[in-house]
Amino acid sequence: MNRVYLDNAATTPLSEEVVDAMVEVMKISYGNPSSTHSFGQEAKALIEGVRRNIADSLKVQPAEIVFTSCGTESNNLIIKSCVEHLGVERIITSPLEHKCVAESVRDMKARKGVEVVYIRPNHQGDLSLDDIEKALQSSDKKTLVTLMHANNEVGNIYDIKAIGELCKKYNAYFHSDTVQTIGHLDLDFSKMNIDFASCSAHKFHGPKGNGFAYIRKSTKLKGMISGGGQERDMRSGTENVVGIVGLGKAFDLCIQNLEIYKNKIQEIKDYTIHQLIDKIKGVKFNGRSSEAENSLFTLVNVLLPFKDPLIGFKLDMKGIAISQGSACSSGAAKPSTVMLMLLTDEEMENCTPLRVSFSHYTTKEEIDKLVEALVSIQQDFK
Ligand code: PLP
């Protein structure tokens, strides 16, 4: 059976060029980047090359890019170190954040007594700038605002430029989880008041277990792992040279092909929406995910007009890999926090959310297979 992969917001397949680049490093550049001999310096040069390219693209300084093991580590490092080392006593966030942000915030509340303010979204998943400003105004405590750039379940894109401006006005730190946008959107951090951001290579055809944190130098954030002082003392531990080269290759390919991939994937997304509207009567879309503006082109979150808790399993039996939400919660029986926030009780009772997420490898034939499978599953409910 030819399997269909439509879960690219969970992870993407490695691109062939990335595999080739990593294999070459595995075979040749095995030095420890901290060693002063030529083997070590060769490995160090590879890492620094990747750091420079990423920094150039995001319009930041190379020293502001810290390689980590993933988006989760980057978000943990930033949030916890802000409390531990920068005197943050208050965090403004939203219930739509990825678990690694939500749990880091909860941990800081439980262990460090940090005050947490949640900005409530409306039913489309929008966050009001007025609400954010009111929250910023309401206390003199040193505050960190942590709000994601794009939501991994419904794809809403938030105006981090405007949020950054508000943070500047009220002298708060601003962290944005950019895991779903780095590698997909052209980001220029020099034009935004953003202090911290996070990235995960496996969301754009790079290796799992590799990411980076953007940490604005002037914040003087400190690392949380003690050891040999690698990554300018921000993240001790011998660097994963192979993974960093893979991340760098994947990043370069995405940035070079940004417009091509965007147009191709947007066409697939539009096709998916049209086919679903055409073939599944009563289908709806969650958040802003069916809109051209303010929505990731890489995913659409569908609300099927029938309740089927086994939908993921049934599609898998038909060879179609897809999630109902974030990979962290997709194995769980209970609906995700994001869906609970956005759907009405009636929708929760009678409908099934499904996240269809694309890459530039996705084809219209694969979408046809998905739609055909959904039509056949819907028959069971008639
Ligand atoms: N933040 C968002 C928005 C994500 O979608 C994910 C991954 O699902 C993460 C953070 C975690 O990234 P990683 O898998 O690299 O730990």
TrEMBL record:
Under which main EC class is this enzyme filed?
A: transferase
Keywords of this entry: Aminotransferase, Iron, Iron-sulfur, Metal-binding, Pyridoxal phosphate, Transferase
Q: What is its EC number?
A: 2.8.1.7
Any one GO molecular function term? cysteine desulfurase activity
Q: Which cofactor does it need?
A: pyridoxal 5'-phosphate
Q: Which Gene3D superfamilies does the entry link to?
A: 1.10.260.50, Aspartate Aminotransferase, domain 1, Type I PLP-dependent aspartate aminotransferase-like (Major domain)
Q: Which PROSITE patterns has this protein been placed in?
A: AA_TRANSFER_CLASS_5
Q: What reactions does this protein catalyze?
A: (sulfur carrier)-H + L-cysteine = (sulfur carrier)-SH + L-alanine
- Where in the numbering of this chain does the Aminotransferase class V domain appear? 4-370
Similarity section: Belongs to the class-V pyridoxal-phosphate-dependent aminotransferase family. NifS/IscS subfamily.
Q: What is this protein called?
A: cysteine desulfurase
The species this protein belongs to is Bergeyella cardium
The record lists the lineage as: Bacteria, Pseudomonadati, Bacteroidota, Flavobacteriia, Flavobacteriales
